[in-house]
Amino acid sequence: MENLFFWQYEFTPGFEFDCLRYTVRQSAGALHWHNYCQLALCTAGRGEFTFSGKSYPYAAGDLFVVDNTERHGAFVAPGETAKFLFVMFYPQFVARGTENAFDYEYLLPVSYTSEDFVNKIGADSDCGRRLAPLLLDIEAENRRRRPGYEHLISAKLRVILAELLGHYGMAENAHGIVDRHRKLRPAILYLEQHCQEPVTLADAARVAYLSPSRFRHLFLETMHLGFKEYLIGLRYQMARRMLVTTDTSVAEIAAACGFSNLSGFYRLFREREGVTPAEFRAALHPAQDNN
Length: 291
Known about the structure:
By secondary structure, the chain is of the alpha+beta class. It has eleven helices and ten strands. The longest helix is centred in the middle third of the chain and has 21 residues. The protein is globular and about 50 Å long. 30% of the residues are buried.
């Protein structure tokens, strides 16, 4: 079985965008996934950026486009380090509650079909040379947070995504992908709001006005993972957040987040974090009793 974990990141409520400087220090790690989109710019070092079934060498200036479901990870040789700038955002930061297909087209570069998509944009390419300063600029804007920064960041991100649209030539084939995302959006919002409840695929299909069989196929085709796996990921995200921000017992957290089987939650958590929930919390709050 593929070694895999879910990478949790907390955005400011209502502003699902952020930038993160990250140092890769070792290669003995697992692939991960997250439910936000990511543009990863290498700023120093060398290594391999790996996706499920694909791998690319990287060096300073190379850029990688990552959607909100694909398994991936950046690795370096033993004893070496590499540095990245991560620009991260939820799809709804770009297209929230809109029926305008034009807005959804901005998301095409991060709504790709994994097998056929070339995630790497080289530092020496025309697109790479244009995008690197734009990513550094949006990071600076996010750091300064001068009046109106939210609108500036929103506009600058659209410029970056428009550059990617041109690079990949996606606008010409936009209709099918945009239509799938628009059909699924009500169900995705519903799952985010009700994931801790005993929600079923039929419930989500009903919200999207689709038959269960059509919804199952469309969900897998668009999100690149199954309905159950996505739902578990949302519950896991909620549970991990509660472990960090509350002193609620592990059993109560598991139940509150929709995990009916406590041992199954422990097994999932250890698979993704390498430690038990109590050990994870203790590492963050050493003085706290987790028994």
